[in-house]
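Note to self: the last two entries modelled the partners one at a time, which told us nothing about the interface. This time every component goes in together.
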Amino acid sequence: MAITIKDIANKAGLSPASVSRILNNHGRFSAETAKKVHEIAESLGYFKNQSAADLSQKQSRVVGVLVPVAHTNFADEIIKGMQHTAYELNYELLITFIDTDEKKQIQTVQSLLSRKVFAIFMLAIDAPTALFELLNHANVQLVSISNQLNNKIPIISSNNDLMMHQIVDHLYQKGHRKIALIGSSERYPIVAKIRRKGYIDALAAKGITYNPDWIWGFQNTYQTGLDAIQHFGTPLPFTAAIGSADIISVGLLNAAQDAGLVVPNDLSIVSVDGTELTQLTRPILTTIEQDFQMMGHLALSSLHEKTLTENAIIYTDTKIVLGDSVRDFNNY
Amino acid sequence: MAITIKDIANKAGLSPASVSRILNNHGRFSAETAKKVHEIAESLGYFKNQSAADLSQKQSRVVGVLVPVAHTNFADEIIKGMQHTAYELNYELLITFIDTDEKKQIQTVQSLLSRKVFAIFMLAIDAPTALFELLNHANVQLVSISNQLNNKIPIISSNNDLMMHQIVDHLYQKGHRKIALIGSSERYPIVAKIRRKGYIDALAAKGITYNPDWIWGFQNTYQTGLDAIQHFGTPLPFTAAIGSADIISVGLLNAAQDAGLVVPNDLSIVSVDGTELTQLTRPILTTIEQDFQMMGHLALSSLHEKTLTENAIIYTDTKIVLGDSVRDFNNY
DNA sequence: TCATTTTGCGTAAACGTTTACGCAACTATA
DNA sequence: TATAGTTGCGTAAACGTTTACGCAAAATGA
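The predicted structure of the combined assembly is written out below.
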């Protein structure tokens, strides 16, 4: 039915082996025959059967990507970066959204493993035990992106500690002393923990003792932002809040405005992520931008260059991008 | 290295054939041996080599999904719907973001074809000629989702004509007579054409002659929304605008507010798509919601049941979801 | 009890590719 | 011209699975 290298070989008066060598540019062959083979392949409309190739080589160039179903929009950015690099380095990406249902997760990952993927990228995933077990069992290279799991798996991420310092420094410089952290109280365990610590340390560095009540909310959802304002009530006990994800910050902003507060006068907001969402609000949100595309790129390229040791941590840059959501107390 | 059915066969004192039959629940075997085989497979940590299976069966259960890189967020919804159904019916999804660069597109799709995918879903893709050529050449089932390409490819989509009627009827009922259509002037050729026609027809049905100048903008971007307000200037010559995608509507809203207009008093907006984005604005956008998850579901299930003929068109439901972005002239 | 059917499983070929090995023909070197 | 090295390519096995076919044993029926 479909065209195989055997067909090409017949037409060219060669053996399949030679055709394979030529098409893969691997081994010895003459330029002349190569030209002929390429022409014939083209004219017959040949497509390599990658399954057969994978089977023969016992290794595929497929990388599985696990994306949480409730994937915040930064996942798209990471994938974009990966896709670009995959194209350059000739890898294939098997992107899979994973569910919260554990049974589904397992089945999904099993099918990845069946494909003999040679690496699995986990985007912002807190592997629950069963899944994690499975992944460790299979011997496949794991990479955790934009999250930190344990010290067995290499990590590509922003420096969450540094980010918190950058944000607190920025707010401090604008005159803020009462700063809340919304959305890192529990979830995404390790990242949240690092952020909390960074936040506390950064405050301490300015001589501010943090108020534990002001670290509030743990889900990266819009609702968390809404609820936070509700929770603290007006007038708010702080002048600035850090939203631990863009969607949280939008929630904060809307809830504050709905409650009659003016942003940034009554509440300043700095958002963590810096996706397009921060540009769609009024006022535009000041944000710390993570380089998600770079994460995607680095994941693949460092994998390619085999520079990923077990406990590697690669940090990508973060920077403050100014919007209009932070009040400057110096100008009053 | 890895465990194969041969290993299982040895340990069970069977032939690989029997193991295969058992694991795939296909053919004859005794319940007793089946139990043994499953146990051994479990204990050895066996993973099927899907490449080998695909090769042997000459057909894979992999469906390729082509998603435009600048994928508006409804793509996520469609994929979610597909993923759910894929899980039920035991298919695998190979999601691929495709670039605007034609050479990359070709390479990407080639690699899909190499995987012997048995169908390709195209999400909101206007296939440019070269890609289209390639896809037609390969004999693979194509399905166009949320877009209409030509009458050779089955379509799963909202009824764009009906949607426009629903929107115009809603606006008319609220007392609007001057209604603009932003974002369907040229692009997404067929869909845009249908929307324009639906819009014009719906107006005509109310005895309104449309103003060709009020069909403006062709890209599904935030910028289109911003530019539209700029283009028409204030005060706007119409009382309501239909944003042909959520992101356009957000642009309209922000630009209008930035220009000092009050939504909905000075401008009413109805958005097309109804993704989460419409809930994040103030005021919340009135929108016509498309059932994207259902599109994803139907694509896969109708493929599975082989009910997709060449020129099939399957419409999913659309409905108006009320927000606060439409002024009601009846209440004044 | 014998004939027939059913059951459980093994044999072997096939899927399309890659690659180690080897050989003949050619090229370079002295 | 003899020798050694190189080049181009074919042979054949291997990857792990599936499945048509067939056979012996067991089950069924009379």
